[in-house]
Design a protein that fits this description.
The complex is a heterodimer of chains A (475) and B (239). Chain A has 475 residues and is an alpha/beta fold. Among the domains of chain A are: 68-298, NagB/RpiA/CoA transferase-like (Rossmann fold, 3-Layer(aba) Sandwich), CATH 3.40.50.10420; 406-471, no CATH class. Chain A contains 23 helices and twelve strands. Chain A has helices at 8-16, 19-25, 28-41, 46-62, 64-77, 88-101, 113-117, 120-126, 136-144, 160-170, 183-200, 226-232, 250-265, 319-322, 325-330, 341-352, 354-357, 369-373, 380-393, 399-412, 415-433, 446-449, 462-471, and strands spanning 81-85, 106-109, 130-133, 203-206, 210-212, 217-222, 236-242, 246-247, 272-276, 290-296, 438-439, 454-455. In chain A, the strands form three sheets. A six-stranded parallel beta sheet of chain A has the order 1-10-7-4-2-3, with helices on both faces. Chain A has a four-stranded mixed beta sheet with strand order 8-5-6-9. A two-stranded antiparallel ribbon of chain A has the order 11-12. Chain A is globular and about 75 Å long. Residues 428-451 of chain A have low confidence and may be disordered. Chain B has 239 residues and is α/β, with parallel strands linked by helices. Chain B folds into two domains: 2-38, no CATH class; 50-234, Rossmann fold. Chain B is 32% helix and 23% strand. Chain B has seven helices and 14 strands. The model of chain B has no long low-confidence stretch (mean pLDDT 95). Classes of the chains: A alpha/beta (475), B alpha/beta (239). Chains A and B meet through helix 4, helix 5, strand 1, helix 9 and helix 11 of A and helix 1, helix 2, helix 6, helix 7 and strand 11 of B. Bound molecules: iron/sulfur cluster. Residues 314-320, 343, 374-376, 378, 380 of chain A line the site of iron/sulfur cluster (SF4).
């Protein structure tokens, strides 16, 4: 997928003025936030599981070489093949070679963020192989030639009218005057159209939510059942998975499974949690004859040992974006690449470079909600701050910010002067802002105040308040 | 192939460089493989620890919450009649594609001559399938379907209606209990790092009918898989 991340500001401005998108974004609270809260409430041990999950993934990453090797050997001992792909280009080449070897003409696809990351569809099309997205959300995006805007609800930004328009335009073999009175009619039509594609496909490609080292299994977690049709009906099943998806045992997978659907959509468990282990066995009546796993690195191994290593714990549940006020205002497309929201703001610079994605870590209010809901306890705000620092060191920040921060740093290193300075500034700002309690404009801070108001200080600096509370024994 | 081996070495090498170490010494790596072999349990929540006598009721309640339906049979002989009644109630065709499973093959289908019964994997035109199920989990009303000659995977996913015969003795408390059953009943020696293999090609954990919320984030049942999942609980001792 081509990135428009460098244009985050322009993208965001457009999103704020897009009434259709804003209507869709109004669904975030009832459909995701409230549902997650209910889902989490069904499991009193949720907080404990978060800690166990964090430790489990940390352990796995600290021994990732061993677990990946064990996983790959377990796959191969059961007749599957593992292909190691260092880059997106390698992964595309491997998939194409597998497809060509069986003379594939059409390929059905379950939902896979890795497929988006490596821009697989464009590559297959260019080689004369037709990819068919079968997840409903991905399917309509393919019809509309649009990227996903959310990692679990890819067509989250669309309204019913958009679906009707796309179906009328694309399914021209159906009566032109058919009615779409209900959502159900859309679903039925998509089901019928895609059923033929499932049956005709030569190769099925899915992602993987996890890989199990103990058993050599890949796991997909879905609600629609399209992933299961994709991987059961064709002769060949290809799994696209990135290297950090491995967990040691089935018991370890249980920790993540208990949190994944609850964090994502507030479901206790997804409808289909499916484990695939190798190709069809001699006694099996159905299933694919070939089973391939493409293990993608694409920058992840370079995150190990850095301040971004914790990001490798991510299970792609989307809770962080669902709870992010910035995502809730500008939607997923503004982020300009595959992964939006807080997890995207941290991951995208790692994968495509901070020079292209440097704006994303700034798209944060540092309110901390993402970290507080993240089932894997990933310190997202801290990592966004790391990116800001790196970006600053590389002098990619606009000059005004750099000078401003330089001045701040000079003062901050000299606490006496800093306190005096902030006290004066506070008083001044407090006086100017008294009338309405906020500033719509501040000198030197236009980039900040053009999108939001700065609350006027209420009288005390942080230091002064901290000192006072300490004296009163309150901190 | 050469390139593949190099890619593997380079990826593992970068991971080790990040971890600031070389390959783990054999003794340490063996400890990790031993953990794979013993697969210790993590925290199993209280809702996964239902006492045996309450599991069937818990399973049914959880599945119904996820839009599945449940009927009870006191004996296997009742099952064809229960299926016929269900089909009639939902105006479904009286033609079944049944898994070639001994339990299902032995049912007295002849008692219901109106039912057209065929055994085998699902064909695209099949509207209703009947399968058994390896085990079920009370924690969330989840059923485990294991692929094999007695259970074609297509039966779980192609037809519009999936009818499952579940023996109550096969309902366990937590997912971990179900995995232990697979290990115990399907394990054989294998050339894997742990020295055993037990997973069939495909294990589907199914909780209710297929669904999608992709259209305006609103739940609709029957996306690509079955629109209806109906479970017949066969009392066989426990539960
Ligand atoms: S960062 Fe955390 S909350 Fe966000 S998608 Fe990943 S696991 Fe979920």
């Amino acid at each position: 997928m081509l990135t428009t991340s460098p244009a985050f500001k322009q993208n965001a401005a457009r999103a704020l003025n897009d009434p259709g998108l804003q209507k869709a974004l109004a669904n975030v609270r009832p459909r995701f936030i409230e549902k997650r809260a209910k889902g989490v409430a069904t499991l009193p041990e949720f907080e404990q599981l978060r800690e166990i999950g964090r430790d489990l993934k940390n352990h796995t990453i600290a021994h990732l070489d061993v677990y990946l090797d064990a996983y790959a050997r377990a796959v191969e001992a059961q007749g599957g093949r593992v292909h190691w792909a260092e880059t997106a280009e390698d992964a595309r080449r491997i998939v194409l070679e597998i497809c060509r070897a069986v003379g594939a003409r059409t390929v059905t696809k379950g939902k896979s963020m890795i497929s988006e990351e490596i821009a697989l569809n464009e590559h297959l099309e260019a080689a004369g192989i037709q990819p068919v997205e079968t997840d409903l959300g991905e399917y309509i995006l393919q019809l509309r030639k649009e990227p996903p805007s959310h990692i679990i609800g890819p067509a989250f930004h669309l309204n019913r009218e958009d679906w009707i328009e796309a179906f009328r335009k694309s399914h021209t073999h159906r009566p032109a005057d058919r009615a779409f009175a209900e959502r159900r009619d859309l679903l039925t039509e998509a089901r019928e159209v895609l059923r033929d594609r499932f049956l005709a496909a030569d190769v099925g490609i899915t992602g993987a939510n996890m890989l199990i080292a103990e058993t050599g299994s890949s796991v997909i977690v879905t609600n629609e059942g399209n992933g299961d049709l994709t991987q059961t009906l064709p002769k060949v099943h290809i799994v696209l998975a990135s290297i950090e998806k491995v967990v040691p045992t089935l018991e370890d997978a249980c920790v993540i499974l208990r949190m994944l659907a609850r964090s994502a959509v507030g479901q206790d468990f997804s409808t289909y949690v499916t484990f695939s282990t190798g190709p069809r066995r001699p006694e099996d009546p159905d299933g694919p004859e070939q089973y391939h796993v493409v293990l993608l690195d694409n920058g992840r191994s370079n995150m190990v040992g850095t301040e971004f290593q914790d990001m490798l714990r991510c299970i792609r549940c989307a809770a962080c974006m669902n709870h992010c006020p910035v995502y809730g205002s500008v939607g997923g497309h503004s982020y300009g690449w595959v992964y939006p929201g807080p997890m995207g703001a941290v991951l995208t610079p790692s994968l495509i470079g901070v020079d292209k994605a440097g704006h994303l870590p700034n798209a944060s209010t540092f309110c901390g909600r993402c970290e507080s809901v993240c089932p894997m306890k990933i310190p997202l705000p801290k990592m966004m701050r790391h990116w800001r620092e790196r970006e600053f060191e590389r002098h990619l920040t606009p000059r005004a910010t750099r000078v401003g921060l330089g001045v701040w740093a000079w003062f901050a290193k000299r606490p006496g002067i800093y306190r005096l300075g902030t006290r004066i500034a506070m008083r001044t700002l407090g006086l100017i802002g008294r009338r309405r309690g906020r500033f719509a404009w501040l000198p030197l801070a236009k980039g900040w105040t053009s999108g939001r108001d700065m609350p006027a200080p209420e009288g005390e600096t942080f230091h002064a308040r901290y000192e006072r509370l300490k004296r009163q024994g309150l901190v | 192939m050469e390139q593949g081996i190099d890619a593997r070495a380079r990826i593992l090498g970068r991971i080790r460089r990040g971890l600031r170490r070389g390959p783990l010494p054999d003794s340490l790596a063996a400890g990790l493989v031993a953990r794979l072999r013993t697969h210790p349990r993590n925290l199993v929540p209280a809702r996964g620890r239902t006492p045996p006598a309450e599991r069937a009721a818990r399973f049914a309640a959880e599945l119904e919450k996820e839009h599945g339906t449940v009927a009870r049979a006191a004996s296997a002989a009742e099952i064809p009649g229960l299926i016929a009644a269900y089909l009639a109630q939902h105006n479904l065709p009286a033609a079944l594609r049944v898994a070639p499973d001994p339990l299902l093959e032995r049912l007295p289908w002849a008692d219901r001559p109106m039912l057209k019964v065929a055994f085998g994997r699902a064909e695209p035109s099949d509207a209703v399938s009947v399968t058994s199920c390896f085990a079920a989990v009370a924690e969330t009303g989840t059923m485990l379907m294991l692929s094999g000659p007695d259970h074609p995977t297509t039966l779980n996913i192609l037809p519009d209606t999936h009818i499952v015969v579940l023996r109550t003795s096969r309902i366990v408390g937590a997912y971990e209990d179900a995995f232990d059953l697979i290990r115990a009943e399907r394990g054989t020696a294998g050339a894997t790092p742990t020295g055993t293999r037990f997973m069939p090609r495909n294990v589907m954990m199914i909780t209710g009918p297929s669904r999608s919320a992709d259209i305006e984030q609103t739940l609709e049942l029957g996306a690509h898989g079955p629109r209806r999942v109906h479970v017949i609980l066969l009392e066989d001792g426990t539960g």
